[in-house]
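Write out this protein's structure.
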Amino acid sequence: MEYLKQFIYLKFKMPIIQEYKHNEEFLILMAFLDFFGLENPIGIFSIELYPDFIEAFHNWHKRINLKNYNFPCC
């Protein structure tokens, strides 16, 4: 029974989790493009998302090893 649970997790649930993480990272990057000096095509719409994404952005930039930059979350 345990092997069946592991198979289902690896075959079906893991790709969904990976896709969710990928989409979340892309959304965070698009929301905070102006902090990297790039033009933000959705800047006027993403300003409302900053309070909601600031903690996720903090975890994201630590995960990709951008600790030496002056971001608003640190």
